[in-house]
Give the backbone structure.
Amino acid sequence: MKVRHSDFAETEASKRKQARQERDARRGRLGPGHASALTKELARVIRLAFEEGVTGSLWGMEGPLRAGVRADLCLQGWGWLTADLLARDLLDDALRAAGARLRPDWNEGQPEWTIEGGTLIERTRCIRCHAPLPEGHFKFCGKLCQSNHAHRLGRLKAAGEDLAVMMAVRSI
């Protein structure tokens, strides 16, 4: 069977339409205008935090704001997953409204990425197990911690957003 390009385009358009309908249904449960007002307020907070230097980028408040919106929705009786999906959707809209255009990749979100070149971080404990660092070690106490840390980071990088959230929650 030969698949035509137009069939693929229709399938993709259908998937996008269904995702948009699901997102709109979640927003509709907030009540008329409430989602729009909440998005505007989130965008204002994001812009203010960035302009005041509280965060280094427009993305800096994404985690705390998502957690706060999700918690408020859960306290109102929403299920965790539905509340999390709505919080994600609202923040995506708020970030666009605040002027955020290109989401940083996973590496750019790590503390090591933001450190100026040549700046040394003086560590006295292993990044992974927090044991005192032996003489001549600067980040890990040994090969086992180094390889376990690299393996965990590799799994997080390869994970999709939902799986990464689950992995992060389990590690707490």
